[in-house]
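Cross-posting from the modeling subforum.

Setting up a comparison between two proteins and wanted a second pair of eyes on the formatting. Protein 1 (sequence, then structure tokens):
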Amino acid sequence: MPNKELLVKIRRETGLSVMEISKALKEANNDETKARELLRQRGAEVMSKKQERAVKAGLIDAYSHNGRIGVLVELQCETDFVARNGDFKEFAHDLSLQVSAMNPATVDELLEQPYIKDESQTINQLLTNLTAKMGEKIVIARFARYEA
């Protein structure tokens, strides 16, 4: 039987379904580290299965840091439904903050960077988690950073 407090904690942090978390906790005998690793592996599997799908929707997030640095990020997904989702919008804005602070040269470099709000995760891990949560292919299409 999964530990309810642990289930709620992981759900709050990841936004994944209760069923997925419960299944991972059961397989890991309520070991949080093992359960999180199982969830990461499953997220990566989901992401790889979705790579053939076409992205037809998305959004552009704009961010200005003290009027000196400006960032535009284009984040794509499969449907307008996901593009309007609060978690999707928040991820797009977090990417803008990341680009502003870390100044990556390419999307590949951005994906490898530690997340500025939680250095234990990379941007790619956040993308994988969001893809698993939303159930759609999500792509960081491009970004631009301007500095005065």
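Protein 2 (same layout):
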Amino acid sequence: MATNEKEQELIKGLQDTVINFKIDDAKRLAEEAVQVGADAYTMTMEGLAGGMEVVSEKFDNHEYFVPETLLCAKALYAALDILKPHIKSTGTEAKGQVVLGVMQGDVHDLGKNLIKAIFESAGWSVHDLGRDVPIQKFVDEQLRTDSDIVMLSAMMTTSMVGMKKLIPRIKEKNPKVKIMIGGAPISEKTVEEYGADSTADNAPNALQEAMTMLETLRVM
């Protein structure tokens, strides 16, 4: 959490730069945050991710469309590039690896991109397969990287059904791997029905869930 007035001011400023896709201002505020010794992790999670959550809501409400959200993401990454080298350990064990992608037939990758930014900020190795990813590619990438967690995203029910075929294939190859699924049509019921391990309704919660799953894996 932000501990002083200056940090709160920087957080609000970073949120604004993401929401209103002010790329130059995002860089400037990130540099200022580093100069004054503000906590880079807090700036990222509360500032950049906080702003992107608002962008996600605007996208869902049809206030923003793909061009706007891409510009918002550019502002986020412009600031993140400056903040990331200054992020200190969050006090947890060594971070894990995650394979991340949007299911085949789906090109909605705003949520996936936000997850990637948050996980990279927290020190995870992220293997991003992008969007419209064929089922077998997830299986191959998990085996190639030996990642702890596979994260599957779908914003449409038509692409979501592919998860039901994919999850058993991944588990067959590596029974220990944890699978998190997310997106608008995903619920706890979907997790149970498809044989996944978890879901989360936003990026910070996804990170917390992933941390919990990683701890479980490390004691197995």
